[in-house]
Each structure stands twice: as C-alpha cells, then as structure tokens.
Structure prediction request, 217 residues.
Amino acid sequence: MSRKRVAVLISGRGSNMAALIEAAKDNSYPAEIALVLSNRADAGGLLVAQAAGIATATIEHTQFGTDRAGFEQALQATLEKHRIEIVCLAGFMRLLTGEFVGRWQGRILNIHPALLPAFKGLDTHKRALEAGAKVHGATVHFVVPEMDSGPIIAQGAVNVMREDTEEALAARVLTVEHRIYPMALKLVAEGRVRVESGHCVIDGVPVPDASSLVPSA
Ligand code: GRF
Prediction:
C-alpha cells in the first residue's frame, strides 16, 4: 500500500513536526511527510523541515487581514498542489472554519497538550497546576469545527509533581506528545481508526494498562 502524503501545519518551533518527520523516515511507516506549511515566515520548524529535505511553504495569514476564506483558499490550493491526503496540525495557531474542516473530515488531526476534554484552549499546563491536577497529559484528536473537540484518537498521561513549574510540566508532557502523535498518525494512515457515534474505534490495538492511582499508597 502506498504511503499517505501528509502535510504538517505549524506556527512555531515544530518539535511535534520533527517527531513525525523522524517516525516517517522509516520506510515501513504508512505516511510520508510531503509538506510542512506555516502561517508565519519566522516559524523555527521551517528550518528543521528544510534541513530534513522536506518541501515547505509559508502562507502568512496577516496578508489576508480578516479574510479567513481567502487564507483557507490559499491553504487548500497548496495542499492540493502537493497532493496531500492527511493534515496534521502541530502547534498551528490559527482557527480553521467549519467549511475547511468539513472538507478534511476524518483526515485532519490535532495535538493538544492536555487530557481532553479537560483544559481546552491555551495555557493548559498553568491551568492544570492551578487546578491541582495529579495527572495531566496530551491528546491527539480528529479536528472538528469546535476548538479542541472531536473524536479522541490517542492520549498519554504524566504525573504532576508537587514541585512542578509550568515549564517542567510542559517538558514532561512534550515527551508524551512526541510519542503519541506518530502513533496516532500511523493508525489513521493505516485506516484502522473509524468514528462511531462520535468516538474513535481502533482495530487491532492492545489496550495498555493505564490504571495507576495517584497517590499510589
Ligand atoms: C504543543 O504543545 C502542542 O500540543 C500544542 O502546541 C505545542 C506545539 O509545540 N498544540 P511544537 O511546535 O510541536 O514544539
């Protein structure tokens, strides 16, 4: 089966993008990263992608002012030009319209740095600390028009430590992000994820034991 052509959309440093590129270096991985696209010319991830020999594109949203449709038309045209089959949002800081998301339904993924549906939106690590959460983590989900919603494909959890700063917690969650995003993309590219009644059902994946209690005494 041919590998699915994937575009990774970024706005910043692109460490999740780099994790996807790394996974896709293996020829047996069912997806190839065919394009990295940023809405900001200064996104550090563009240089990382170029160094890896991957095609890059920049579509600056600021050029379009309030014309969201114009921005998305340019985005769609670029994705079509590169014959993209799956879109991975990875720190892409633009909201996409229902029309665009609908066109890519079931073929557009996002990673969010929290255990959804908890802590949608920004500043997730700060808010998890403020809430006194004992467990925190990251989620890969299909994108739907409503922000940080949509069927959950994969999640990974970390413990929150008493002495954690926002930065320390973010770094611990990021290591999990880099593991679950390549895993989730693999499952989607292999066609093993289907959505039933708004929930992802995944074929042939053993369910790991995530039943730790915190505190464990
Ligand atoms: C990640 O924490 C991701 O979960 C969130 O934005 C951040 C992007 O980081 N959506 P990077 O650019 O992938 O390093």
Notes: Residues 10, 12-17, 90-91, 111-113, 138, 177 surround 5-O-phosphono-beta-D-ribofuranosylamine (CB under 6 Å). The radius of gyration is 17 Å. The first strand starts at residue 4 and ends at 10. The chain has six helices and nine strands.
